[in-house]
Design goal:
Elements (H helix, E strand, L loop, with lengths): L7 H18 L4 H17 L8 H37 L12 H9 L2 H12 L4 H7 L4 H19 L4 H4 L24
Length: 192
């Protein structure tokens, strides 16, 4: 009768499974901890060729996998929460809805940016992407995306500064009219 020998990953999981489960239980609820433990085990088996030798190295490797599994789970939960919030707002808009021209100054300022900068700002602030993810969508390296975003923020800040005549001049507004051009008793209102 032949006895199958445990793989090094199985041995490491058997030795560390209780500690790994406690790691998850201290950070999540009991049901989520069990799911995260199962995902950690699956990942460890899938990455068996990366398993290091030595008891302590093996333990650290498993906890590194566990940490990544937890971080991925937390990111997914945040994405689901943001999506659920957006859907709730779409399905049940507030009773006190905003007027159609709310934020028109910001939208106009964004439209005045270079098209690539404007799209970067929209992806980050309207679609909820990180700077790096928005840059990746636009085919930009992370450092370029960060620099472009800083440039866009500075341009928007300047455009939206109080007293900036460019920001306060909307193409739909009337041009400045010199009241001294009117003679006599004519009364002009609403034009400055």
């Amino acid at each position: 009768m032949t006895h199958s020998r445990e793989s090094p990953v199985e041995t490491a999981l058997r030795a560390n499974s209780i500690d790994l489960l406690h790691y998850f239980e201290r950070r999540t609820d009991r049901d989520a901890a069990a799911d995260l433990m199962a995902e950690t085990m699956l990942t460890a088996w899938q990455r068996e060729k990366d398993h290091p030798e030595g008891t302590e190295s093996s333990r650290m490797w498993l906890f590194g996998i566990a940490r990544n599994v937890l971080k991925n789970s937390e990111r997914g939960a945040r994405r689901r929460h943001r999506l659920a919030s957006k859907l709730r707002k779409l399905l049940h808009p507030d009773e006190a809805s905003h007027s159609a021209d709310d934020g028109v100054e910001v939208r106009d300022a964004i439209e005045q940016l270079d098209p690539a900068l404007a799209e970067l700002v929209r992806l980050i602030h309207w679609e909820g992407f990180s700077i790096n993810d928005a840059g990746q969508i636009l085919g930009l390296p992370s450092s370029t995306a960060r620099g472009s975003y800083q440039r866009a923020k500075q341009q928007l800040r300047e455009a939206l500064e109080p007293g900036n005549s460019e920001a306060q001049h909307c193409p739909a507004t009337l041009p400045h009219v010199d009241l001294n051009t009117f003679t006599g008793n004519e009364r002009v209102t609403g034009i400055d």
